[in-house]
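Sanity check. The docking grid for adenosine monophosphate depends on where the pocket ends up, so I'm generating a full predicted complex first rather than guessing from homology. Inputs follow.
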Amino acid sequence: MIDLHTHSSASDGTQTPAELVRAGAAAGLEAMAVTDHDTTLGWDEASVTAREVGLVLVPGIEVSCARGHQSLHLLAYLPDRAHPALVAELEQARASRETRLDRMVEGMAADGIPITVASVRAEVEEGATPGRPHIADALVRAGVVGHRDEAFTRWLGDDSPYYVAHYAPDPVRAVEVVRAAGGVPVVAHPLSRTRTGVVGRDLVEELAAAGLAGLEAHHRDHDEAAVRELVDLAGALGLLVTGSSDYHGTGKRNRLGENTTEPEVLAAIEAQATGVAVVRP
Ligand code: AMP
Ligand code: FE
Ligand code: FE
Ligand code: ZN
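Predicted complex below; grid placement will be based on this.
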């Protein structure tokens, strides 16, 4: 069982990288990728634990991208985390996420929702990528809602009046930067309707021309028709097909290994990568 999309407390997962990898091993995964939003912060701890528990670890990142109101998440497998262009993009996203989070919280607090910038900051691990889920966590802790889901439905959705965007690179730029860093770019959940705008065929074709490697077809946000459409599109464009859980600990209902990637596909990803090696026990 291979699961190539999971989150730790280095972004908006609820488990530390070590806990996440242990949970992966306990769930029966043979290989897993740690793909925190816009950061490689969890890689070292995850690698140490993977060696301890005898699991294959694929270091990755889920890079937030945007074109106008269209948002896109790009999984980057095995990039060189010291590549200057990649470092610069992640740093810019991080800095922008900090101010954006404060602005969202200030707007909510002004309307009497019982949170403060400090109470939200307290939910973010040192050095981690801050995001809307941390606002949700502060609301759960304040007893205002029972789960992150509810906070998103009430206040945190993309169409909420409190929503503030953060800097994110254009997806074509992101594909080019990930390739330049020796990484292997795969579009995460292209047909998810939980974010603004599904990723259309035209954009996938544009990304494929820029060096895209694959599409994450098997994901809980995709119904059967969506999976079929993506598998067909990947076939037509010569792209790899992956499947993964997008596990966030208790922050989302997604379970480790609920969707998986074929060993041949992981082998192809590894063969294309020149940034950093897969961690083997
Ligand atoms: P941000 O990166 O700050 O724009 O926040 C987006 C993140 O929120 C995504 O990566 C998801 O992990 C998370 N998210 C979106 N919708 C929900 C939801 N309904 N319940 C829990 N987490 C969510
Ligand atoms: Fe997330
Ligand atoms: Fe995502
Ligand atoms: Zn994700």
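Relevant for the grid: The pocket of adenosine monophosphate (ligand 1) is lined by residues 12, 37, 131-133, 148-149, 152, 194, 248, 251-252 (CB under 6 Å).
Also worth noting: The mean pLDDT is 97.
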